[in-house]
Amino acid sequence: MMTTPAEPNRADLGKDPARVSGMFDQVAKNYDRTNTVLSLGNDQLWRVATTKAVAPRRNERILDLAAGTGASSVALAATGAEVVGADFSPGMIAEGRRRHGGVSNLSFTEADATALPFADDEFDAVTISFGLRNVNEPKKALSEMLRVTRPGGRLVIAEFSHPTSAAFAGLYRFYNDRVLPRIAKTVSSNAEAYDYLNESIKNWPDQQTLAAWIRDSGWTDVAHRNLTFGIVALHRAVKPL
């Protein structure tokens, strides 16, 4: 019997958790390939930079939030750390387990970033890549990340940001507005999801504002550096002793 494909699920800037989760469920299978194509391969460079910033050590316990299909989690686990890949999309978690279920020091769990199912002071480091932007209460998520991190533990956030050069910013807007939607229609199973991606990037705060949010949540030693001319910013912080 033929089945009717599910209608594309498109989130909006209201970021209703059920809609955002459902949208990611639908793109899980081809998610990593699509990201590599749309980022012109830069996603892999950003992942390397994030892993270096986390600086995982053997036997440390690390929480990788918004882990998706686990590409970032596998990179962290390769260092010998005990990694928990968490995501609020069941489809992403299922795909991660399918691909990486044989990695002994990597586990996956479904989790809401604003209400993490973990104990206080449980992790040596918490990281989230390109996921904080999709949380409907990002400041609450930052506080939850602080709660589950041990005193002296580390936070690393990789997120889309604002290019620092006006000329490059114009080129970046042209790519996102004119080029990216056409490529997404070719390579993604849910091209409308990438319309939301574009909107969410435009409406996300700049580097200094996110740094202030992190600081206001109780983190210290807050710093950031730009990647790819500020398309992405890598924020780092430490939980006070």
Automatic annotation (TrEMBL):
It holds the Pfam family Ubie_methyltran. GO terms for molecular function: demethylmenaquinone methyltransferase activity. Keywords: Menaquinone biosynthesis, Methyltransferase, S-adenosyl-L-methionine, Transferase. It is an enzyme of class 2 (transferase). It catalyses: a 2-demethylmenaquinol + S-adenosyl-L-methionine = a menaquinol + S-adenosyl-L-homocysteine + H(+). GO terms for biological process: menaquinone biosynthetic process; methylation. S-adenosyl-L-methionine binds at T69, D87, D112, A113, S129. The keyword DNA damage does not apply. Its EC number is 2.1.1.163. Pathway: Quinol/quinone metabolism; menaquinone biosynthesis; menaquinol from 1,4-dihydroxy-2-naphthoate: step 2/2. The keyword Cell division does not apply. NCBIfam families: MenG_MenH_UbiE, PRK00216.1-2, PRK00216.1-5. Belongs to the class I-like SAM-binding methyltransferase superfamily. MenG/UbiE family. HAMAP family: MenG_UbiE_methyltr. PANTHER family: 2-METHOXY-6-POLYPRENYL-1,4-BENZOQUINOL METHYLASE, MITOCHONDRIAL (PTHR43591:SF24), METHYLTRANSFERASE (PTHR43591). Methyltransferase required for the conversion of demethylmenaquinol (DMKH2) to menaquinol (MKH2). This is Demethylmenaquinone methyltransferase. It comes from Microbacterium endophyticum. The lineage of its organism: Bacteria, Bacillati, Actinomycetota, Actinomycetes, Micrococcales.
